Amino acid sequence: MEQAGWDKKKFLIDGFPRNEDNYSGWNTVMGQITELGFVLFFEADVDTMTERIMERSKTSGRNDDNAETLKKRFVTFNEA
């Protein structure tokens, strides 16, 4: 973050926090040196998200961009 312009004090952290536990952890580690202005939440159905992530998987190199992992992610998200 410092190399990317810490002094500008504005960052978009994609996909985080995913739940209250993530947010609490963030506050424990970063709460004294950062201010979380807001959380931007986009809602999309599972089919749309799956389609987009599977398209991303063609070039992302991420080993977790696969159908089985996505199913687990969606369950975890919906339980949070």
Task: Characterise the protein shown here.
With 80 residues, the protein is mainly alpha-helical. Helices cover 49% and strands 0% of the residues. The longest helix has 15 residues, at 46-60. The protein is globular, with a radius of gyration of 15 Å.
Spatial gap, N to C terminus: 28 Å
Radius of gyration: 15 Å
Instruction: Report the average pLDDT across residues.
Output: 85
**Low-pLDDT stretches:** none
User: Percent of residues in beta strands?
Assistant: under 5%
Q: What's the topology here?
A:
Layout: H1 20-30, H2 46-60, H3 67-79
Give a brief outline of the structure.
The protein is about 50% helix and about 0% strand.
Note the main attributes of this structure.
mainly alpha, 80 residues, globular
